[in-house]
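Lab notebook, bench 4. The sequencing result for the construct came back, and we need a structural model before the next group meeting so we can plan mutations. Quick request posted to the team channel:

Model the 3D structure of this chain.
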Amino acid sequence: AVVPGAFKPPHAGHFAAAKHYADNPNVDEVRVIISKNERAAHEMDEDGVVLPHGDRLIVTPEMSLKIWEYYAAGSSKIRAYITSKNTPVKDAYDEIDNLNAGDTVMLVMGQKDANCGDDRFGAVSKVAEERGVAYDCDPVTEKQTGIDTDLSATHMRQDVLSGNRERFYQQLPKHIRNDSEKREEIFNLLQRGVQKKKQRVN
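Done. Here's the predicted structure in token form:
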């Protein structure tokens, strides 16, 4: 199973989708492909308007990888890595190239973010067919995972920037959310990406 995305940072829904496939005895491995690009969040005023010289948060792919390692520590099937390609979608196609005829590739997508008609993956079925690989497109639903689809990496970045730990923790996987040490380590990891106004204005 292949899970491509930005994951800046990954939230409970991302992990639940990966775990859903990792728990499937017919799946050998779940490969999480992390975009090499950074994502930023900017300090806003009460009306949600970005402050030109406010603080900002930069979430790096290395941060994302470290968080995935926290999430998947108990799973031998989930393996995350940072792509060197322009987008993680290209790696998803490369994964198909590495399969043998008769294998099956599962493209892991969330109900909120994608569907089987997603343009980014429009050629997957054709490429798989050409290589004799079966293609399974079945977006993971809230019903299957028990995870609220109203989760957002954007909100998580804003929570880190504003210091709202409690709201941030609510978007973490349950096993991390209930571990006070690990959830704090993840929050502190991301806070190292905060660039203060005084550091940026010279």
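The chain has a mean pLDDT of 84.
Will bring this to the meeting.
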